[in-house]
Amino acid sequence: MTTSLPSIPRPQAAEAALPILLRQLRLAWIRCHWQSIASQAEGEGWSHSQFLYALCEQEVEQRQQARQHRLLRAAHLPWSKALADYDHGGRIETHRWQELEALSRQSEWLQRGENVLLFGPSGVGKTHLAVGIALAQIGLDQACRFYPATSLVQELQKARAEYNLPAALERLDRYPLLLIDDIGYVRRDEQESSVLFELICHRYERRSLLITANQPFTAWDEIFPSSSMTVAAVDRLVHHCHIIEISGDSHRRAQASRRSGSQQPQQP
Questions:
Q1: Are residues 130 and 226 in the same domain?
Q2: How many domains does the chain have?
Q3: pLDDT band at 187, cuts 50/70/90?
Q4: Which of 51, 93, 134, 172 could form a disulfide with 41 if both were Cys (CB 3.0 to 4.6 A apart)?
Q5: What is the percent of the chain with per-residue pLDDT over 90, rounded to a whole number?
């Protein structure tokens, strides 16, 4: 079966109709810039294929940048701090830091539904590390969503009260990586803990969780209302998991001490 050649209008008519066709094809960047690229192509003697390649390359690049911006907005990150900006010296064992760097460079662990747990006292940079991993995954075209633990629990509680909890859990499935910050602030309350437990069960071996916590597992009985629920939740989280422990003093307290010291009047 042969394909007949299209009927090409005169140059002026084609130039007038081209923006309409490009809008129908949703080629926004090409619609806005094809004339300047055409002038460059004519001036530099490009072939037709070189001209078409330049247009398509820029369209793809602009679409990728737009998607990155959408992913960043949808992630609701509290700030933008890269993993490389974290001073891990003396806080994280070398092989664990290398493990975090490896996780930031690839996304296969998300496809396997593996989890990351960051343990450490307040102020040592757990949220910084969580945000750094999320930014790296967004750079790899992976959707992420950041929640303070209490906000997430409140959202899920509201969904349960409206008999929409299953739908709310499924909506969160659009994010291969869900970040839950400061899980220890969830109160030991059956309603709060049960929706959190259902989320953990729902995502088990399907979607990844990144959780930051001040307390070790031995203190999680203060989060869940029964030891059996605690054991079941921890068992699911650690089955496919990367556990990173962070030590040291609070960055915030250290910075406050330095500021306080610099403001002390000098003795004559």
A1: yes
A2: 2
A3: confident
A4: 51
A5: 62
